């Protein structure tokens, strides 16, 4: 078994990495320390040693990309001292900070850059089996303390503890003896793989297999079709799907020739993406993208420039890159006058650090369309005087060029907003504007915005008072150049639903703080208002810790731009990630039809009153868990896992149920418990699976979660591949469930 394959072993770049290099780790202009870095034998883990701490390591599978040259703020700040060809940056998945490194020679830098790229490619292209083999190999190497390539029973006992398994000694010894074919009293790697297979034998999958297999050895084509029709609720497509599954997942050529599936193939199918809870076709871009912008939920970030809290946090270009990588399509910029005529961005009247407006726009230009082609809205909170507003307008035009939308798509005054499809590859500026799209701007129009419109962006009834609030009484000057760049997203003050119905233009939009939005959500008109106009919701100014509000309440009334602090992990970002995981992660999700009709009477408070009301029953049998992550890294500690299923949606659908906890088994706990729910508005519901380590004395510890829209759930026997608190995968941790969805009568 050689998971690394010849590619990595014989590659000259990888050889340099395995030998190791002394590289400078750079944290700031002042902080530059030499560290020894090398790639471990598993070909996946980079290990580095500091003179002081003794050791440290970073795992390779978490590295997402490597950037060459001065491609981070830190490396740019030392560009004078170290030329670009010595510098590179490792970027990690999730919210882990980047690692900025400087090599001694361009050749060494290239060896690491090319080597890391090859290993990332390898990690991305591994199939399920290789990934599992790699995982087993990793454990073997961790447990083989004396590095003799063998493992005695004592080492195996220790390993089981590391793997979260509490097992009675006799049973462990029995498995060990069976795997020790050479009867040498220790296991070599092949024997250890056998031991691991026996240890991880999935009896619960074997039972399902037996239920549908005539001879208990294999599933003939007809039996597999039967399984897909009855258990997986696939209906007519089973006949077409069954041979495809055999072709894709059956490892045995003999079984393939018979048109049959062995137990190994069956288990591989159930553990694959196709056997996961998420409908594969919904992962792809599959929705109609030609409707007005107001008909979509749009993934949106608040105070995008912040990496941490709102008072002393670090402002960074990296925060924009992270948000855009997560599929965010509306980013925010807080602009203030800079000392040398250059506008700066930071959280005003606080100690957060400052960045240049033009640098953010350059970053936006580079990263806006890396994960999605659909439009990005740049929400501008403008605190600058006229002169620096004009500088901002120049930067926007010069840096973004054609990418910035500066004119209407056609000559007519729009009756509805253009679609994401029509705006592909465009950046839209959301800010105040002098006049509207109707007037051909003549000189009689004033360059002043009344104080009423002035507070459009600052409808923040809870922000701590800024120092110059009395300035609001006067008229505020707006730069004509900046105003002219605003087309479909003109910020206006909200005068109530009745006023909007009679007078508002589709391109006018308002921002609401979470508390104001909550008050408005009690009025049925909000859903109707949101069919035609965009609403932006943002967290209360009192959330100085960058915590988030629950976005579901705002989606329930059709608000499109529900801005969250992307830098803060937790339930609210899990819901955001869950909603936008569908439709190709493009950052736009089409609202249900009853939220797009201008005459809609839908109210989340009374779901039963809408036309076409069809509640559904969701029944989830939580069968088992696989290789759940350790919460406490102490060698002897083993978890007591429980599973909770939480439903988020209209008020009647908010619900949660949990299983009992299993003592001392994070490796292969079996619950076999059913949790039942009634869903009144399936189109708006999100389902969140959470695994926790039970603790009777204090709060349970979070272990992993997965959130998805109810409409994306596949019924039947499914695996749920868990994510960390950060939203990154933690293979091979999963839950095995059986899901049934039926009409509620």
TrEMBL record:
<dbReference type="InterPro" id="IPR001711">
    <property type="entry name" value="PLipase_C_Pinositol-sp_Y"/>
</dbReference>
<keyword id="KW-0963">Cytoplasm</keyword>
<dbReference type="InterPro" id="IPR000008">
    <property type="entry name" value="C2_dom"/>
</dbReference>
<feature type="domain" description="C2">
    <location>
        <begin position="596"/>
        <end position="724"/>
    </location>
</feature>
<feature type="binding site">
    <location>
        <position position="381"/>
    </location>
    <ligand>
        <name>Ca(2+) 3</name>
    </ligand>
</feature>
<dbReference type="GO" id="GO:0005509">
    <property type="term" value="F:calcium ion binding"/>
</dbReference>
<feature type="active site">
    <location>
        <position position="302"/>
    </location>
</feature>
<feature type="domain" description="EF-hand">
    <location>
        <begin position="167"/>
        <end position="202"/>
    </location>
</feature>
<feature type="domain" description="PH">
    <location>
        <begin position="15"/>
        <end position="121"/>
    </location>
</feature>
<dbReference type="Pfam" id="PF00168">
    <property type="entry name" value="C2"/>
</dbReference>
<dbReference type="Pfam" id="PF00387">
    <property type="entry name" value="PI-PLC-Y"/>
</dbReference>
<dbReference type="GO" id="GO:0016042">
    <property type="term" value="P:lipid catabolic process"/>
</dbReference>
<dbReference type="Pfam" id="PF00388">
    <property type="entry name" value="PI-PLC-X"/>
</dbReference>
<keyword id="KW-0807">Transducer</keyword>
<keyword id="KW-0256">Endoplasmic reticulum</keyword>
<feature type="glycosylation site" description="O-linked (GlcNAc) serine">
    <location>
        <position position="182"/>
    </location>
</feature>
<dbReference type="InterPro" id="IPR001192">
    <property type="entry name" value="PI-PLC_fam"/>
</dbReference>
<feature type="domain" description="PI-PLC Y-box">
    <location>
        <begin position="482"/>
        <end position="596"/>
    </location>
</feature>
<keyword id="KW-0479">Metal-binding</keyword>
<keyword id="KW-0677">Repeat</keyword>
<dbReference type="InterPro" id="IPR028391">
    <property type="entry name" value="PLC-delta1_cat"/>
</dbReference>
<dbReference type="GO" id="GO:0004435">
    <property type="term" value="F:phosphatidylinositol-4,5-bisphosphate phospholipase C activity"/>
</dbReference>
<feature type="binding site">
    <location>
        <position position="536"/>
    </location>
    <ligand>
        <name>substrate</name>
    </ligand>
</feature>
<dbReference type="InterPro" id="IPR011992">
    <property type="entry name" value="EF-hand-dom_pair"/>
</dbReference>
<dbReference type="InterPro" id="IPR017946">
    <property type="entry name" value="PLC-like_Pdiesterase_TIM-brl"/>
</dbReference>
<keyword id="KW-0442">Lipid degradation</keyword>
<dbReference type="InterPro" id="IPR011993">
    <property type="entry name" value="PH-like_dom_sf"/>
</dbReference>
<feature type="binding site">
    <location>
        <position position="511"/>
    </location>
    <ligand>
        <name>substrate</name>
    </ligand>
</feature>
<keyword id="KW-0325">Glycoprotein</keyword>
<protein>
    <recommendedName>
        <fullName>Phosphoinositide phospholipase C</fullName>
        <ecNumber>3.1.4.11</ecNumber>
    </recommendedName>
</protein>
<dbReference type="InterPro" id="IPR000909">
    <property type="entry name" value="PLipase_C_PInositol-sp_X_dom"/>
</dbReference>
<feature type="binding site">
    <location>
        <position position="430"/>
    </location>
    <ligand>
        <name>substrate</name>
    </ligand>
</feature>
<feature type="binding site">
    <location>
        <position position="638"/>
    </location>
    <ligand>
        <name>Ca(2+) 4</name>
    </ligand>
</feature>
<dbReference type="GO" id="GO:0120548">
    <property type="term" value="F:phosphatidylinositol phospholipase C activity"/>
</dbReference>
<dbReference type="GO" id="GO:0005886">
    <property type="term" value="C:plasma membrane"/>
</dbReference>
<keyword id="KW-0539">Nucleus</keyword>
<feature type="binding site">
    <location>
        <position position="694"/>
    </location>
    <ligand>
        <name>Ca(2+) 5</name>
    </ligand>
</feature>
<keyword id="KW-0472">Membrane</keyword>
<feature type="binding site">
    <location>
        <position position="334"/>
    </location>
    <ligand>
        <name>Ca(2+) 3</name>
    </ligand>
</feature>
<feature type="region of interest" description="Disordered">
    <location>
        <begin position="447"/>
        <end position="475"/>
    </location>
</feature>
<feature type="domain" description="EF-hand">
    <location>
        <begin position="131"/>
        <end position="166"/>
    </location>
</feature>
<feature type="binding site">
    <location>
        <position position="432"/>
    </location>
    <ligand>
        <name>substrate</name>
    </ligand>
</feature>
């Amino acid at each position: 078994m050689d998971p690394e394959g010849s590619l990595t072993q014989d590659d000259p770049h990888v050889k340099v990495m395995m030998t190791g290099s002394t590289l400078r780790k750079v944290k700031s202009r002042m902080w530059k320390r030499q560290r020894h870095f090398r790639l471990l034998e598993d070909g996946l883990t980079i290990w580095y040693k500091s003179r002081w701490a003794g050791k440290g390591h970073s795992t390779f599978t978490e590295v997402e990309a490597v950037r060459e040259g001065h491609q981070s703020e830190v490396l740019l700040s030392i560009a004078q001292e170290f030329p670009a060809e010595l510098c590179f940056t490792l970027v990690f998945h999730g919210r882990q900070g980047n690692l900025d490194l400087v090599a001694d020679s361009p050749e060494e830098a290239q060896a690491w850059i090319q080597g890391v790229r090859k290993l990332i490619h390898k990690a991305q292209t591994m199939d399920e089996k290789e990934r599992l083999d790699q995982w087993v190999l990793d454990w073997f190497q961790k447990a083989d303390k004396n590095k003799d390539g063998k493992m005695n029973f004592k080492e195996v006992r220790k390993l089981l503890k590391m793997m979260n398994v509490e097992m009675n000694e006799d049973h462990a010894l029995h498995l060990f003896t069976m795997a020790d074919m050479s009867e040498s009293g220790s296991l070599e790697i092949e024997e250890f793989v056998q031991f691991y297979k026996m240890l991880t034998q999935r009896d619960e999958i074997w039972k399902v297999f037996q239920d549908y297999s005539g001879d208990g050895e294999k599933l003939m084509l007809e039996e597999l079709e039967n399984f897909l029709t009855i258990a997986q609720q696939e209906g007519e497509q089973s006949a077409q799907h069954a041979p495809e599954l055999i072709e894709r997942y059956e490892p045995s050529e003999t079984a393939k020739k018979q048109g049959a599936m062995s137990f190994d193939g069956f288990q591989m199918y159930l553990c694959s993406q196709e056997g996961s809870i998420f409908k594969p076709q919904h992962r792809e871009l599959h929705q109609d993208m030609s409707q007005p912008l107001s008909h979509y939920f749009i993934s949106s970030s608040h105070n995008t420039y912040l990496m941490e809290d709102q008072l002393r946090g670090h402002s960074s270009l990296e925060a924009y890159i992270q948000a855009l990588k997560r599929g965010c399509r509306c980013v925010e910029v807080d602009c203030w006058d800079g000392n040398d005529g250059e506008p700066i961005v930071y959280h005003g009247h606080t100690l957060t650090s400052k960045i240049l407006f033009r640098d953010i726009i350059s970053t936006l230009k580079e990263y806006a369309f890396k994960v999605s082609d659909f439009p990005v809205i740049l929400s501008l909170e403008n605190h600058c005087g006229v002169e620096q507003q004009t500088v901002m307008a120049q930067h926007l035009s010069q840096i973004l060029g054609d990418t910035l939308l500066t004119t209407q798509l056609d000559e007519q005054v729009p009756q509805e907003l253009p679609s994401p499809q029509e705006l592909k590859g465009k950046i839209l500026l959301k800010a105040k504007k002098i006049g509207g799209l109707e007037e051909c701007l003549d000189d009689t129009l004033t360059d002043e915005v009344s104080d009423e419109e002035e507070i459009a962006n600052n409808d923040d009834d809870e922000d701590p008072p800024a120092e110059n609030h009395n300035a609001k009484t006067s008229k505020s000057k707006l730069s004509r150049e900046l105003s002219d760049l605003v087309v479909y997203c003109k910020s206006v003050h909200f005068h109530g639903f009745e006023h909007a119905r009679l007078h508002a233009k589709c391109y006018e939009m308002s921002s609401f703080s979470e508390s104001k939005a909550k008050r408005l959500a009690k009025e049925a008109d909000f859903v109707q208002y949101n069919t035609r106009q965009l609403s932006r919701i943002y967290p209360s100014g009192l959330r100085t810790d960058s915590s988030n509000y629950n976005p579901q309440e705002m989606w329930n009334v059709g608000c499109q731009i529900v801005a969250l602090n992307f830098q803060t992990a937790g339930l609210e970002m899990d819901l955001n990630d869950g909603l936008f995981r569908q439709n190709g992660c493009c950052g736009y999700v089409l609202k249900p039809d009853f939220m797009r009709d201008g005459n809609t009477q839908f109210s989340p408070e009374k779901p039963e009153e809408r036309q076409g009301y069809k509640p559904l029953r969701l029944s989830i049998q939580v069968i088992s868990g696989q290789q759940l992550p350790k919460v406490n890294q102490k060698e002897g500690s083993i978890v007591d896992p429980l599973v909770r299923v939480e439903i988020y949606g209209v008020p009647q659908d908010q619900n949660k149920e949990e299983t009992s906890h299993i003592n001392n088994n994070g490796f292969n706990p079996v619950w076999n418990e059913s949790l039942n729910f009634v869903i009144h508005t399936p189109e708006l519901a999100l389902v969140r699976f959470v695994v926790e380590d039970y603790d009777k004395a204090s709060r349970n510890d979070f272990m992993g979660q997965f959130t998805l829209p109810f409409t994306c759930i596949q019924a039947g026997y499914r695996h749920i591949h868990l994510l960390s608190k950060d939203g990154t995968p933690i293979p091979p941790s999963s839950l095995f469930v059986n899901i049934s969805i039926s009409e509620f009568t």
